[in-house]
Design goal:
The chain is of the alpha/beta class. Helix content is about 30%, strand content about 20%. The protein is built from 7 helices and 8 strands.
């Protein structure tokens, strides 16, 4: 890439929403007093050393604006994973950030979707295993659902295993058909098979020609349609009665 990842433009151009920074959380706010449903955006991990805060990447600012345009609060959180052995502490940190978002008076605490990206999807396992009833759904975009070769990940953070715990919280999964991250597509296929076996509802958004991070790297109509489809699926989950 000619530009650093944080400066790669989002494939859509939604109108910018007001953004408030509160500690490790950026709130992208829709019009109106609320309370509004909220989507908590969990960026990819681990980040390369010295990477800028993902809340400042055009990618996540784009998703924040896209969700606010739909009348949702988008809470883009910031966290760091420097050692995979530290995933339990990171997961607890994220759970605390979710609670802080739910406590905001502009947020409807009973209508929450968690949206995980890339390597951050390993952190979805706790929520896949036993999500509270206020979690209306879990979204996964080009998700890493099995560890990369050589990674030693605590068993708690294996999303495939979490599917067998009996939860029925629905999932929206976006698959980029040309993803070259080792084992990622095989992990998604195994996840979909496991979800079918246990009856977990999954809405699949396909991007056949998309690569990893297609939403900033592949400026095509297929990419734009996939992002819109994932957004619409999230909106459907969060507004369902």
């Amino acid at each position: 890439m000619d530009d650093a990842v944080e400066q790669q433009p989002f494939v859509l151009a939604p109108p910018a929403a007001p953004v408030e920074r509160h500690g490790q959380v950026d709130l992208h706010l829709p019009a109106g007093p609320g309370p509004h449903p909220v989507v908590v955006v969990v960026h990819g991990a681990p980040l390369p050393p010295g990477a800028p805060d993902p809340r400042d990447w055009l990618l996540y600012r784009g998703y924040g604006a896209l969700l606010a345009e739909q009348g949702l609060v988008a809470a883009v959180i910031s966290y760091r994973v420097t050692d995979l052995a530290g995933l339990p502490a990171t997961a607890d940190e994220i759970a605390g950030l979710v609670e802080s978002v739910r406590a905001d008076p502009r947020v409807d605490p009973q209508r929450v979707v968690l949206w995980f990206f890339s390597g951050g999807s390993l952190l979805s396992a706790d929520w896949l295993r036993a999500a509270p009833d206020w979690v209306r759904g879990i979204a996964l975009t080009y998700p890493l659902l099995v560890p990369l070769p050589g990674w030693e990940v605590p068993a708690r953070f294996l999303p495939l295993d979490a599917l067998g715990a009996g939860s029925t919280t629905p999932v929206v999964l976006t698959r980029a058909g040309q993803d070259k991250l080792p084992g990622l597509l095989a992990g998604i296929a195994a996840f979909l098979d496991a979800a079918a076996r246990v009856g977990r509802p999954v809405r699949l958004v396909e991007v056949p020609d998309g690569q990893h991070a297609f939403d900033i790297l592949d400026h095509t109509e297929q990419s734009r349609e996939a992002v819109r489809a994932a957004r619409d699926a999230v909106v459907d989950l969060i507004r369902a009665d």
